[in-house]
Amino acid sequence: METSFLRDLVSLRIGQRWENWSRAHPHLAAAIDRVRLIDSVITSLREDPEFIRAMEQAQADENKLQAATQLIALAERLIARFLPL
User: Fold this and answer.
1) pTM here?
2) Which end of the chain is more exposed for a tag (fewer CB within 10 A), N or C?
C-alpha cells in the first residue's frame, strides 16, 4: 500500500475519532502531536502480522484479478477470430 494512501486513511480515521476523544481527554489531546500519532499508527500497522497478511492477501487478489483480465482478453481475441465482425 502506498504510504500516502495509508497516511490519508489513518489521518481520516483519527480525525473521525479525535473530536470526541479530545473532549474526554483535553489535557492529553493538547499534548499530543497528531502528525506523530499518525506516524506511530502507520508504523504499528506496518509491523502488525494481521495487517501484513491482509496486504499479502490483497496483493494475491490483485494478481488473480490481473490474470483473470488477461484470460478474458485472450478469450475475446479468440472469439473475434472465430466470429469476425
Assistant:
1) 0.67
2) C
CA dist., res. 51 & res. 9, Å (int):
14
Three-class SS of the chain: CCHHHHHHHHHHHHHHHHHHHHHHCHHHHHHCCHHHHHHHHHHHHHHCHHHHHHHHHHHHHHHHHHHHHHHHHHHHHHHHHHCCC
Nearest to 10 by CA among 32, 47, 37, 48: 37
Contact assessment for residue 11 and residue 39, using Cβ atoms and an 8 Å cutoff: no
CB 21 within 8 A of CB 29: yes
Separation between Cα atoms, residue 1 and residue 8, nearest integer Å: 11
